[in-house]
Amino acid sequence: MQRLADTLNLPVERSSISETCCLGAAIAAGVGAGIWKSYSDAVQLLQAPRTRFEPNPSSVSRMERRYRHWTGVCVEAIVAHSYGFSESDGVIALNNLVSLAQ
Length: 102
Known about the structure:
The structure is a single chain. This protein is mainly alpha-helical. The chain has two domains: 1-55, no CATH class; 56-102, no CATH class. It contains five helices and two strands. It has helices at residues 2-8, 20-32, 39-46, 57-82, 87-101, and strands spanning 12-15, 50-53. The two termini are 42 Å apart. InterPro entries: ATPase_NBD (IPR043129). This is FGGY_C domain-containing protein.
């Protein structure tokens, strides 16, 4: 969960209940049966403690660098494919173009 918080650069909360899908089904059944007036009423009564994961600034910057690198690799692969190159030919050709442009 910490990696998810770092990747998204957002806080992430994990429920202490491992079967949250079952809890959701029980809430839907309870609302449907009239046990609770609304979903929000049921959720207020059945909230479980949560663990909160805050983004770690140094990990966030590392994940951003990895993301930029990955998107660059994807662009190279797309360009190579669009010109009919194999993956390795495309990367070599792009590297040659970059060095010529500099």
